[in-house]
Design brief:
The protein is 58% helix and 11% strand. By secondary structure, it is of the alpha/beta class. The two termini are 28 Å apart. The relative contact order is 0.13.
């Protein structure tokens, strides 16, 4: 098994505060945020919401949406590619700047292919060309709501793990790093210049604090956080 970097737990603890993505509204009813000047899809989405337990809020402009939105609210965003006050690219840039992770569906009319490609590259889930059957929109909306719920659950699990990691002492954190890298208790004792009983005690203590009972459970617990930290480092380096 490959070694992990010795600074990993500190990075993992810092990650939560740096990103500040606490999904505080996971238990609330999801909302479809509709941004279109004519509100022609509001009633149809409202009826879909009644059947699938989500609400719909309409905004005539991008700015009116940003003035009202709470980043912690769950759901998805449905918006015209061209709004009275901003285009799709500006909307996506603003979402990213505000750390709003809602899945985005765009609606377009005679939009150039390059514009469609650009918004998809920036993370849009789909671009629906008007006129489209409502069944097409409703299918994508339901998929996006489910996608958002899964994302928020992942974030909650990550933050729960970060909270537990923060409870470890520095010595326990170092032992955890060595365990994840594949070292045995004896190898850790030699590496740290500590007694075997000391390492066994620290291992037992950190396992209890993290709520795992084996090295495999520890690796499984930290794997999602390890992936996130590596993605952050790659992003910062680019």
């Amino acid at each position: 098994m490959a070694d992990v970097e010795m600074s990993l737990p500190d990075d993992l603890t810092q990650h939560g505060s740096r990103r500040n993505q606490t999904p505080t509204s996971m238990t609330r009813t999801p909302t479809v945020f509709l941004i279109e000047s004519a509100a022609q899809h509001k009633d149809l989405l409202g009826r879909l919401g009644e059947a699938h337990d989500f609400s719909v809020e309409h905004f005539p402009t991008g700015e009116s949406f940003f003035e009202a939105v709470d980043p912690s609210r769950a759901g998805c965003l449905v918006a015209d590619m061209v709004l009275p006050d901003m285009h799709a690219g500006a909307l996506q840039a603003r979402l990213k700047a505000l750390n709003i992770t809602l899945p985005v569906i765009f609606m377009a009319f005679n939009t150039a292919l390059r514009d469609v490609v650009n918004v998809m590259k920036q993370g849009a889930v789909d671009v629906l060309e008007k006129p489209f059957p409502f069944a097409q929109l409703s299918g994508v909306v339901l998929e996006c709501i489910e996608q958002d719920a899964k994302h928020r659950n992942r974030m909650q699990n990550l933050q729960d793990t970060q909270r537990r990691l923060a409870e470890l002492t520095d010595d326990e954190r170092v032992v955890a790093e060595h365990l994840v890298s594949g070292k045995t208790n004896k190898e850790i004792a030699v590496a740290l210049g500590a007694g075997l009983r000391t390492i066994q005690f620290r291992r037992s203590s950190l396992m209890k604090k993290l709520g795992v009972s084996s090295r495999g459970g520890l690796i499984e617990l930290l794997a999602p956080l390890t992936k996130v930290v590596r993605q952050d480092r790659a992003s910062d380096a680019s």
